[in-house]
Each structure stands twice: as C-alpha cells, then as structure tokens.
C-alpha cells in the first residue's frame, strides 16, 4: 500500500487500542455506529451510557479529551441544522422561553445531535488511534473492493501533493507582493486555480506512466498482511458489544 502516511487526526501512541489490527477497529467503529443509530431516541439515558463507553475507550487509548473535542467541531453544520428543526417542523407545539417550538422538531433535533455527535466521536477516536496507511490495509482486509481502496489511497496521496503545490504557488504570489484583498484580485486567483489543475493533471499522467513502466497492472501489492487473533477481535468488539446491550435495554425498558 505504499509508505506510511501521517495525518493530523492521528495521535501517536502505544496504547492497547493503538496496537489493535486496523480491520478490527474499523469493524468495531462501524458496529458501534449501527447500534447507536438503532437506539430509540426516547432512551435518553442510553446515549449517556454510549458517551461513557466512548470516554472509557478514549482513556484506554490515552487520547486527551481536548484533542477529541477540538476535532468534534467538524459537526458544527449538523448542529446548526438541528437547532433550526424545532422552529420549522410541524405538529404539536410547546412554548419555551416565549418561543413556539415543535415537539417533533425537538425530538428530531435531539436525535440528530445525540447520534451524530456519538458517530463523529467514534470516527475521530478511530482516526486518532489508526494511521491512514493502516486504515487502507484494514479496508483491504475487510474485503472492500480493491478499486475503491486504490482510489482512496491515491486520493490521500494526491491530496497532499495538491496542497503542497498550492502552498508553493501562494508563497510565489506573496513574494511578488500580491495580497488578495478584494474582487479585483479574483482574476489572479482564478488563473492560479487553472494553473494548479493543469499541473496536477500533468503530474498525475507522469506518475501513471511511471507506475505502468514498473509493472502496475491495476492492483497494488500488499506489503503487510494484517491479521488478528480471537483475543484481539474480542477486545475490539467489547465496545460495540456493550453498546448493543444498552440498545436492547433501551428497546425493552
């Protein structure tokens, strides 16, 4: 799958969670999210227990709370959508602090906030304890279509290449005294975007030719074979297993 690739979400560590095979963590995170989504929205206490389970997992992984909370800011657009739901939804209404709010909208907002936040937190925790290269190996181990794995791999690598090219172009503009401060500078930025597209396309062609000349025939060689023991699977599935128990209690109580 190529050389290692660090990303900003990853936090280097040597915890038991870091040491788990990537495909076990991917399966555990997916199962946890499925269980959370399947929980009835009226079982408010269940979502509190889910948060406790994630906090416990973060403690075992030695991932600080501040590190996770900063990366949870990515869900702000969903929070804004949830805040509007009580105002625009129809049905029975209640008055809170002089505001007329929809009961269905309040439940819908809670449903989006609770399940969305827990899902994002689980994803951030997964990314914090697993490198991108390991995630790709895990997806491959879980029998995701090889073409999708390759697309994801190339997207990650070329994302950094394009970002670095953008940085060099920005430095070149600033070294010549350019500073975008209004509409009249949009033309320069548009030309820069066009030049970036052409450079990226040409670089992609050169890389493809280099790969073909080295024997690339549509599949990437697997350098590391990720395997997991029963104990590792049991350890990884402890989180979704406990969440499943909470979900079943939420449906019966």
Fold and architecture overview:
It is a single chain. This protein has ten helices and two strands. With 253 residues, the protein is mainly alpha-helical. Strands 1-2 form a two-stranded antiparallel sheet. Helix 4 runs antiparallel to helix 5.
What would the keywords be for this entry?
253 residues; mainly alpha; 10 helices; 2 strands; globular; disordered N terminus
SSE layout and pairings?
Layout: H1 22-38, H2 44-60, H3 65-71, H4 76-88, E1 93-96, E2 99-102, H5 103-129, H6 132-141, H7 146-175, H8 186-213, H9 230-236, H10 238-252
Antiparallel strand pairs: 1-2
Percent of residues in beta strands?
Answer: under 5%
Helix content: 55-70%
Which segments are poorly predicted (pLDDT under 50) over 5 or more consecutive residues? 1-5
Order of helices and strands: HHHHEEHHHHHH
Describe the biggest sheet?
Answer: 2 strands, antiparallel
Mean pLDDT metric: 86
Instruction: Categorize the overall geometry.
Output: globular
Transmembrane segments: 43-60, 72-89, 109-127, 233-251
Keywords: Cell membrane, Membrane, Transmembrane, Transmembrane helix
Subcellular location: Cell membrane
Organism: Streptomyces andamanensis
The gist of it:
This protein is mainly alpha-helical. The protein has ten helices and two strands, in the order H-H-H-H-E-E-H-H-H-H-H-H.
């Amino acid at each position: 799958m190529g050389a290692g690739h660090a990303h900003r979400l990853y936090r280097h560590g040597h915890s038991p969670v870091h040491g788990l095979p990537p495909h076990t963590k991917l399966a555990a995170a997916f199962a946890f999210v499925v269980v959370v989504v399947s929980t009835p929205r009226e079982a408010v206490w269940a979502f509190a227990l889910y948060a406790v389970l994630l906090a416990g997992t973060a403690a075992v992984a030695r991932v600080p709370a501040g590190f996770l909370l900063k990366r949870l800011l990515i869900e702000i657009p969903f929070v804004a959508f949830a805040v509007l739901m009580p105002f625009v939804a129809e049905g029975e209404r209640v008055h809170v602090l002089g505001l007329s709010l929809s009961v269905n909208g309040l439940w819908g907002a809670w449903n989006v906030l609770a399940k969305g936040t827990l899902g994002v937190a689980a994803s951030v925790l997964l990314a914090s304890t697993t490198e991108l290269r390991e995630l790709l190996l895990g997806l491959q181990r879980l029998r995701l279509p090889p073409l999708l794995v390759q697309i994801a791999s190339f997207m990650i690598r070329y994302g950094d290449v394009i970002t670095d090219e953008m940085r060099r172009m920005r430095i070149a503009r600033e070294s010549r005294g350019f500073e975008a401060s209004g509409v009249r500078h949009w033309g320069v930025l548009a030309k820069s975007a066009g030049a970036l597209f052409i450079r990226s396309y040409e670089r992609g062609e050169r890389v493809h030719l280099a790969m073909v000349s080295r024997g690339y025939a549509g599949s990437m060689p697997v350098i590391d074979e990720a395997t997991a023991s029963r104990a590792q699977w049991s350890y990884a599935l402890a989180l979704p297993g406990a969440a499943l128990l909470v979900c079943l209690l939420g449906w019966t109580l």
